[in-house]
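Section 3.1 - Work completed
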Amino acid sequence: GAGYFHFYLLHNLGESRTQFFDDFDMWSFVQEKKRAGLIRHAGFSFHSTPEELEEILIRHPEMEFVQLQINSGDWENPAVQSRRCYEVARRHGKPVVIMEPVKGGMLADPPGSVKAIFQAADPHASCASWALRFAASLEGLITVLSGMSSLEQMEDNLSSMRGFTGFSAEQADTVEKARAALARIPVIPCTTCNYCAKVCPQEIGISGTFTAMNCLTLYGDKAAAKHQEAWLVDMHGRKRAAECVKCGACEQVCPQHLAIREELEKAAAALDQGA
């Protein structure tokens, strides 16, 4: 192997999680490893407010890059604040690694009203391609990370980025129209990171439940939503929403700051999970 990490990431800073990095002085740890030649560039991923990002970068100017959740759906989302966090990183001169450019797959298969906007602009480009290129069109990037689960998705991503030099004014306008249309639809903005699942004492399939609820919201098909829930929750050995005891542990670790307990209560009713 190379014998060193080219980019070494302190994972998931933000809110109470940041204190762990202070308590264990991970900041000094990465600098020691840099001096030893084991790390070339040290940075961190971040899920919180632009104000907290500003504070961290002021305290730790030695950090060389920031990994942020940036996509067209979250660009102006008040819970994520992609744009403002990106602007903070740029103001501090930190290059950015983009995660969640397709928002956990949600932007690859958006509602019909959103999809129609993209198809009218370019019938040959996938919705995922639009999402990926939106992220890649920003300045000051190291790379754009995209999770792929098939060869077809990888080929689409590669073809989308081959020779890409940025959006035209018309393409940027198309993305803005689609973003506005998507923002009008009240889906649960879960990215299936499953941090919540790791701390839930009831072992509830939270992200699977939310995927099923979004299916119900977007398509109005309860049978399809319940099928989604059966597969993503029951078949994966997780418990259903009705078994939530409202302890709130999930909400303490959710990068999206979702009102998980409230959404699980709604899901239990909508998906016929009566006691």
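Second construct:
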Amino acid sequence: MVKVDKETVKEIAELANFRIEKKDEKDLIFGMQKILEMASALNEAETNGVTPMANPHDASQTLRDDICRDVEQRDSFLALAPLAEDGFFLVPKVVE
């Protein structure tokens, strides 16, 4: 099993673009080591003959057919806008 040390924590923090306080290093080393121990225990678990759990990736999504419809709703959409003129939405200028 991989042993987590101060250098490992510093490397991971650098890769993740995290700043680690000196006072937190010890807790991080302990926490990461516990995570690795748990993963190691899972790797050692006997899984022969165990039925895999249901996976959402095995399901298929039933989609409706796309139907093109010519629906003129411009006026109803423009009526919802705070400002509109000549069939267009008016928005504040944000770029000079």
